[in-house]
Every structure is written in C-alpha cells, then in structure tokens.
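User: For a benchmark we're assembling, each entry needs the component sequences followed by a predicted structure for the full assembly. Here are entry 17's components. Please fill in the structure.
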Amino acid sequence: MAGLIPIRWTEPNADHRGPFSARQLLELDACTRCGECARACDSFRVKGDEGVALIGMIRRRRRLFQQEDGFLGKLLHKDGASEEAWREFQEGVFSCTLCGRCQQYCPVGIRTRDLAITMRQELATARCLLPKNLDRARDAVREEGNIFHFPNEDRALWAEFLDDIPADLLTKERADVLYFVGCVSSFSPAVQEIPQALLRVLLKAGVDVALLGGKEWCCGFPLIMGGLAGEAQRVMDHNIEEIRHLGVKTIVFNCPSCYYTWSKYYRLEGVRLLHATQFIRDLVRSGRLKLDLGDLPVTYHDPCDLGRGMGEYDAPREVLKTFADGNYIELSPSRERALCCGGGGDVEMWDPDLVGEINSQLTGAVAKSGARLVVQACPQCKRVTQRGLEKKHSDIRTMDIAEVALEFGTFGDGDR
Amino acid sequence: MAQVKEFFLPDDLYYDRKEHIWARLEDSGVRVGLDSFGACAAGTVAYIKLLPPGRQVQKGRPFGSMEAGKYVGPLKAPVSGMITETNQEVLDNPNLVNLDHYGGGWFVLMVPANLDEDLADLAHGEGVQPWLEDEVRDYEEGGKLKKEEERECV
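Assistant: Structure for entry 17:
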C-alpha cells in the first residue's frame, strides 16, 4: 500500500487559454464541423440545439476566443465577449451528459468527453459559471462527504435493512476486499437493492469483505465531471487514507463511475480494482456461480463509464450469454455506440426533464429489442431507466447484474 | 390547526422542527409521517425504504430513506423506540406522502421507549403556528438556498 500515489490536479492557467492543454487547443482548431458528433448526441436529439453537442461547444468557444483575444475581437469587441455569450456557451456545455458517445464517431479523433470536461472546468473555475445546484452538490461533498447532503454517518443505512450480514462488516480493521459502494447506491432508495444484492453475492462467494460506511466519501467523480476537479482531490486523499488502514488487496465497485474514477485518477499501485461485472464473471468462470435465467429474453445496456470509459464490454455479456440459452438479445445500438441513459454529466442536478427525455430513447430501444429484462451495471443508469420504464407503464424489468446474480444464481464451491 | 398559505399542520400532532416529520400519539404507539410543508418542499415522492418491524431506532436516527423530486435523504425518527408496523401502501405508492400527508401517507408505527423526554423538543400546540410561519418565510425567501450572487467560486 506504500505505493499509493494520489494525483495532483493542475490548476487552470492564469493566461487566456484557460485550462486547455496543447492537445485540446489543437482539437478546438481541428474540428471540421462535419456534424457527426451532433448526429451521435442523444442530448442534441432532444434539445435540437447545436450548442449541446461538441460541434456547437467548439464553435461557441472558438468565437469566444476570437472575441476575447483575436485580432478582429480586439478591433470590434474591445470589452471582450459578452456575459450573454459566455452564458450561452455554459448552457450548452452543461447540457452534455458526458456519455462520450460522440467520441466514437468523430473522424478526426477529438477526445470529446475530456474536452467537454475541460470546458466545464474553465466555466466553473475561471468564469464562476456553475449551473444551478452544482454549487450545492459541491458544498454537500465538502460538508458531508456525499453529493446528497445526507448525513454521511448514515451511508450504510442500506445495509441495516439486511438481517443476515456479519456484525463486523463496518468495523473490520483488516480485510482482503473493500466494497466501495458510492453515493447513488448508498443513498438513493430507488437503487439500494443493488448494494444489498452485491454484498450478499460477495458474502455467498466467501469473500473477506469490508465496508467503510460513514468513512467512505464521494469518489470525486461528480466534482470532476462538474468541472470542479480541484475539489475532488480532498475526497480522493481521504478515501486513499481509509483503504491504507484496511490493507485491502482488491476494491470492488458496483458503480462504473466510481470504478472509472479510482482507475483513472487515484493511481493506486498494488490494489486490484474490479467492477461487479468482472467479479461476477470471475465467479462464473471458476464455476462458483450458475444462473438459471429460464427462457427470459434478456438484453444488456452498456453504462458509459464502464464501456466507453473503461473498455469493459465483455464481462457482463459473458455472464449473461453463458446462461441465457440463446435468449440473449443484443441491444441496438450497443457496446461502443450504446445509447446514453441520460443520467450522466451531473445534468440531473439542473435539468431533470432532459434526463428523462434522453432516457426515453433508451427505453424505446429496449422495448424494440423484445427483451423482457434489461440488465444494467450502473446505479444511475438503473435509477433513470427504471423511472423511464415506469413512466411508460412498461412491464419490462430492469435489474443490476448483481441483482441478477442473486435472484437467478446458485452458489457453489466450483473449482476454487 | 396551524396554517400558512397551502401548508397546514394539525394541532394534535408533534413536529420535528428540522425534519418536518410528524408524530401522532395513538393507543398502539406513535405513528410517524411527513408534514405538508416537508412534502411540498421535497417534491413528488418517488421511492421510500423503511426499516422492517422489530427494529429499534433512536430519536434522530434514520428509520428509512426517501427519494423525491427535490430531495434524497433519510427519514429521521422523532422518538426512540421499536418499529412495530410499516405502511405497505406508502411503499407501494409513495406519492401518498404528497396526497394524504396525515392519513394514508404515514410511514411507520413505533412503540416509544422514552416518550416524555423525546416529545419535549418537538413543536406542539401554540408553538406550531409561529414556527410554520418562519419556515414558510425562509422557504419563500430562499433563505436555505444560496442566492446566485452569494455563490462562492472555486
């Protein structure tokens, strides 16, 4: 554990470039305005405003560069860009769910999601243009260690609903595995079945697992995505310190955003990070878990941070295809081009209606597939999709892969 | 009955001033719910989870959690005691919290452990009206919400 190296964020530059890297400045120039990103953008499809897709964000930012610093800008706009122009830019940038789907379509290879995050960072820090409620989420993380402003001492309330868990789960001083639950799974009653299921799966598999409970803080993901990366360092340092005490060898996540953040930003050495889909896949491979899905037509939706973010598409499919007996249906589109659930990019904090409308496209695709069960691997995807299906009075069921393992699984010793 | 605008708080109940949780003393125990102001401020309730009957809960500790349009958070017990009954109707139809605050929208029934002491700091009787007036004024003025010009930039 001595090798843990927390990263340090570079503060935004004081000069005119803002926090953009040299590559990103090139990307701003490299955009050919082909519009492929807009065609791939679920947010654009709903809002019809080019400014929510990367093509529009880049166009507006270029114009702001010109107005603030360009030769013509100096001649014609001596006072720089107007507040209104910055606001218009901000509205577009913060309506992006950061699902990264457009990145799969960009013919010149712009790292669209990173660029959009940097734009947010510039707006949130250099321009002080935070959208509604993001400042409250930031304050909640500062004060309570979670985005909901829920008393963090009650973070493990979801576990109190279970009668059959070991009493020392929250008080262990050493453990092989830490289950890092994340804010949405811990606090949203809409999806608390997910951590309850995964914990039971871990225990049934005989894992020496611990929970941090109130000592677990937000992983930092919502802050980074909101352009408040500097704020995230404190919570990351805290979480690293907590796992140092436990001496864990593996951390398991059910939330792909936590998994993504720990993988990309925490820079841990000597600690294995596993998403629940990978942990369950390993149980299946070792013969310790068998599922009986009967003849239920089942499909799977790729969460953006697990799929496009971490490149993990195969683990959940391996689990489901092994046992679906030919009843597995591939959602269209899927994998790298999977539809956005609408729940990403913190957008729900300021535009919940947009989230619902984006999700409607996903639930439409699920209905079209003929599946009766859509398996998900992200609490926020499930939370939003569940609500979307209820709104449509659909009887299609949505379950997290951990819930599937618990409900349809039989656990044995296998070949361990 | 205390009333300010559309918010009304019946006289026979006790109210947790911070959480807007009400407690009604009944022969079988203390029935617990969310008052009309709390329900309005939270927005449409979509999901509720309640600890099962048989669980002991301390005053001020969660007996469940709730997710609504503008709130995700704990439901905190106004008194200490054991949960003896949970409202299955409200679990099946959480919107009852918004539609029938003091009737079908209740959460749990508890057998209190330390009733007299626990009731002492709850609003009741004559103290309810001025407290509600303050709450509504704060809510309308956005006193609990930071105004845009007061926001701190990082």
